[in-house]
Amino acid sequence: MLTGDGAYIKKINRQYILKVIYEEVKISRANLAKVTGLNKATVSVQVNDLINDELICETREEHNVVGRRPILLSINESAAFFLGIDLDYDYILFNITNLKGDTVKYEKIELNTDIYEEIADLVANRIKHYEQEYSWAKFGLAQTYIAVHGTVSTDEVIHFIPTYQWRDKDLKDDLIQKGINYLHVENNANLAAYAERVFHYHTSDNLILLNLSSGIGSGIIINGELHRGFHGHAGEMGHMIIYPKGRPCRCGNEGCWERYASEPAFFDYANRLLDHRIYTEQDVTKLIEVNNDEIITALNKWIADISIGINNIINLYNPEMIVLNSPILGSYKNSLNEINKHLTSSVSHYRDIVISGLGAKSAVVGACAMGIQNFLELPDLSLNATNNSVSA
Amino acid sequence: MLTGDGAYIKKINRQYILKVIYEEVKISRANLAKVTGLNKATVSVQVNDLINDELICETREEHNVVGRRPILLSINESAAFFLGIDLDYDYILFNITNLKGDTVKYEKIELNTDIYEEIADLVANRIKHYEQEYSWAKFGLAQTYIAVHGTVSTDEVIHFIPTYQWRDKDLKDDLIQKGINYLHVENNANLAAYAERVFHYHTSDNLILLNLSSGIGSGIIINGELHRGFHGHAGEMGHMIIYPKGRPCRCGNEGCWERYASEPAFFDYANRLLDHRIYTEQDVTKLIEVNNDEIITALNKWIADISIGINNIINLYNPEMIVLNSPILGSYKNSLNEINKHLTSSVSHYRDIVISGLGAKSAVVGACAMGIQNFLELPDLSLNATNNSVSA
DNA sequence: AATTATTTTGTTTATAAAACAAATAAAAAA
DNA sequence: TTTTTTATTTGTTTTATAAACAAAATAATT
Fold first, then answer.
1. Where are the beta strands (DSSP E) in B157-310?
2. Residue A385 falls inside a structural domain
3. A370 within a domain of the structure (yes/no)
4. What is the CA B138 to C1' D6 distance in angstroms?
C-alpha cells in the first residue's frame, strides 16, 4: 500500500487534469477548474508545470461570447511517439501514434521465418530505426508494446505461442540486451480489449473482447482494469470444454470450444458441405455475397457453437460489452442476429454484443494507447483518434 | 475521478495505519512508522486521532529489551459491532462480530414461512433487538450485511432468489422504511468469497469460491476486488452449458452445469445406484464412512462433472485459489484428489484448490467483515479471528 | 465613436492543512 | 551514569484553497 504526501496529491491532480484535457481535447484553465472541482489557482500551477514539461500547449482561438478570451490548452501531440508491434505468424504489424493517439505510421512486414533469434533481430532493428526517426521529438519514441498471439506471464516472459511453438521466451529481456528500452510484451487480445475501451467504449468497465481466428483469444476488462489472472494466463477461453468427450484438443482435453468455434473449425464445416474447397476469408466473403446456401448453413452451425461459449462467458462475467473480432463474422451481416437468437437463457445478462470496428489493427493501436497511459502514468485513458478504423 | 487535497492524504494514511494495526494486532508508534514508512510525527498525530475516535487503544505490556518501553496499540474491539445475516431457505443465520472480527454471537432461526413480508418483518425485529443489545458500545451495531441466495443488482435490489421465487424485491429499502440503518444486501457467495480472503487467503488477489448446494453459487475476487459484473449478476456459473442439448434447465437452456454438479444432481446419481433412497448430507457421510461402493461411484461421477466446470473456470479466470464450499465434498476425503486428476489440460493454470474451512458460516462472517471494511472505509482488510471455523 | 459597465479568464497573495526533519524529552536496561 | 529506544515538540516545506486583483473581451450607454 501507498503512503500519501504532498507529492502524491500533486501527482493525482496532475493525472486528473491530463485526463480531462484528453477528454475535452481543447479546454481553458477556468473550465478545467470547473470540470475537476479544483481551485483555479491549483489548476494554473499544474498547467504551468505541464507546459514546462512540454506535454500540453496553449492555443488562442476565435471566441464570440462575452468576457475575456480563454487560452485553450491541448495535448502537445508531437511531444512523444508510441510504437505498437503485432507479432502475428506470417507477418508483423508496426503502428506508431503521437501523444494524442493518432496513427502517424503503419507498416506491415511479411515474415518468411519462424526462428526466434531471426525475428527478435528483425524487431530490434526495426525499433532502432523508429527510435532514430522520432529522435527529434522531446521524448522521442517513448514506449513500445509488443503484442504476441499467445500466453504471457506476469513477468512479461512469453509462456507459449502456439503458431510459433515458442515456449518460455524472454523476448523483453532479449531486446533489452540489444539496447531497446521502454519496452513491454503483452498478449494481443488483452491489447485489443484495451483498444476497444480506450478508442470506443470509454465508459464500459466490464468489457470482453473475443478474437476468433486460428484459435480463440480473449481480453477481459473488469472494473475498468485488464484481468490477467494469477500467472497472467486468464482468458484461455478456447479451452473451455463445451462438448465432453468431443473432438481431441492439443491441450490434452476433449471438446474444447476452440475445436468448434475457431476459423479452422468453420472451414471444416464449410468444406464438408461445399462442392469445392475454400481456404481464405476472401473465399467466404465471395460466397456470402452470392448468398450461397451451403456457406450460410455452415456459418449458422458455426455460430451456434460460438454462441454456446458466449452464453457461458456471459453467465460467468456479466459483461457490459462483448466485442467480437473476426473477419468472417464481420463480413456476414446476419451474424449478430444469429448469436442473439441463441442467447435466450433467462439468467444471461449483458448489454450489447458488437463486431469490432478496429479489426486487424486493434492490437497495435491498443499497444500504442497502453504506451501513452504508461508514459503519462494515467490510471485510465480515453482517446478520440479517428484514423485507427478497420479500413484505415 | 477523485481530486487530492490534504484531507485525502490524511485519510489514506489513516487507512494504511489501521490496516497495519489489524495485521500486526499489537504495535507501537515507532514500529508503525517503520512499517508504513511514514514519519514518526505523522504517526503520532494519526494515532492520537484514532485514540480520540476510540477506534484503537493503548496497552502497556511486559518488555525485556533495552530502551524505553513501547506503548502498544491495538484495535478497540468493543467500539463497534457488526451483524451478518444469511437468509437461507428454511432458516436464517445471525452472526455478530466485534471490531476485530471475532464472533461474539451466533444464532440460527428456523423458518416456517416463505412470505416476503413476514420474513422482512422478522429480520427487521431481530436487527432492532441487536441494535438495543449493543447500544452501549461507542458505535453500537455499526453495520449490517444481509446475504441472499440469489442475484442482487448493483443498486442492491434483490433480482431473483430461486428457492423463494422472489423477484425484484427491494429488501434494503423495505427495511430502511422500518427504521433500520447502515444496511446492505449482497449475494451470499460474494460474501463467502470475501470471507475466504479476509480470514484465510489474505494475499490471494485472484480467488474464486464455489458453493455447491441446491444450486451453484460463486464469488469472484479479481485484482483483490469482488467482481460483480455490469448488472451485478456475474458468477452465474451454474448456467454455463457443459452438455449441449443435455438436461433441460429452469433458465431455458439445456445442459447447464447446475443440472450435473449441484447436490440434487448428486443425489440423483446416488439414488439410481443405491438399493435404498438417501436424502440428506448425513446419509451420504454415513455411507462414505463404511466405504460403500455405490456412493463412491456416484461421488466420482459427480466430481467428474464438477471438474468440467472447474476446468472451464480455470481457463477463463486463471485464479490463484479455488475454494470449494460443499458439505458432501468436504466429508469425502478423496474429493480434491479426484478433482485434480481431471484437471490435466496443458493450458490450465491455478495455484491451489481447497475445501472451505468456514463452511456454513462463510457468508455471515464475510458479511461481518465487509461491515468492518465499510465502517472503517478501508480499501482492504485482513483478519485473524480464530472462532469462525466450521466447527465453532 | 467614445466611454462605462459587465463578464469571464487567469494570476497573485495570504492562509490552512498535512507530512516531514530534527531536536528534545522520557523511560528503561546496561 | 551511559546507552538505547520510544514518543513528542518545534519549525519547515509543500500543496491546495480562498479571496482579491488584474487583464481582456463584449455589451450598453451617452
1. 158-161, 166-169, 183-187, 207-212, 216-222, 225-226
2. no
3. yes
4. 30
Q: In a 10 Å sphere around its CB, with 0-12 CB exposed, 13-18 middle and 19+ buried, how is residue B184 labelled? A: middle
Number of domains in chain B: 3
Tell me if B198 sits within 8 A of B366, measured CB to CB. yes
**One domain, residues B222 and B336:** yes
- What is the pLDDT confidence band of residue B392, given thresholds at 50, 70 and 90? very low
Q: What is the pLDDT of residues B188-226, one digit of tens each?
A: 999 999 999 999 999 999 999 999 999 999 999 999 999
C1’ C12 / CA A41, Å: 9
Q: What is the maximal distance between C-alpha atoms in chain A?
A: 74
Cβ–Cβ below 8 Å for B252 and A312: no
Q: How far is B235 from chain A (nearest CA, A)?
A: 4
Q: Which of residues 34-93 of A touch strand D (CB under 7 A)?
A: 37-42, 45-46, 63-69
CATH of the domain at B97: 3.30.420.40
If asked whether residues B187 and B224 sit together in one domain, one would say no
Q: Name the residue in chain A with its Cα closest to that of B343.
A: A253
pLDDT tens by residue, B243-295:
999 999 999 999 999 999 999 999 999 999 998 999 999 999 999 999 999 99
B4 contacts on A by Cβ (under 8 Å)? 4, 8-13
Q: How far apart are CA B26 and CA B34, in angstroms?
A: 14
B147, B16: one domain: no
Same domain, B208 and B347: yes
CA of A41 to C1' of D21 (A): 13
Q: How far apart are CA A366 and CA A383, in angstroms?
A: 11
- Whether the Cβ atoms of residue A167 and residue A160 lie closer than 8 Å to each other: yes
- C-alpha B124/C-alpha B118 separation (Å) is 10
Q: Over range B85-108, report the average pLDDT.
A: 96
Report, as an integer, the average pLDDT of B359-370: 97
Do B109 and B151 sit in the same domain of this protein? yes
Is strand C within 7 Å of residue B35 (CB)?
A: no
User: Which residue from B2, B4, B231 is facing A8, i.e. has the nearest CB?
Assistant: B4
Range of the domain at A179: 81-194+361-376
Give the residue nearest to nucleotide D9 (CA to C1').
B41
Q: Which nucleotides of D are covered by protein (CB under 7 A)?
A: 3-11, 13-20, 22-27
Contact A350 B320 (CB under 8 A): no
- Give the residue-averaged pLDDT of B118-131: 97
Separation between Cα atoms, residue B358 and residue B375, nearest integer Å: 23
Q: Give strand letter and number of the nucleotide nearest B58 (CA to C1').
A: D7
> Does B389 fall in a domain?
no
CB contact under 8 A, B253 and A344: yes
Q: Which residues of A271-297 are buried (b: 16+ CB within 10 A; e: fewer)?
A: eeebeeebeebebbeebbeeebeebbe
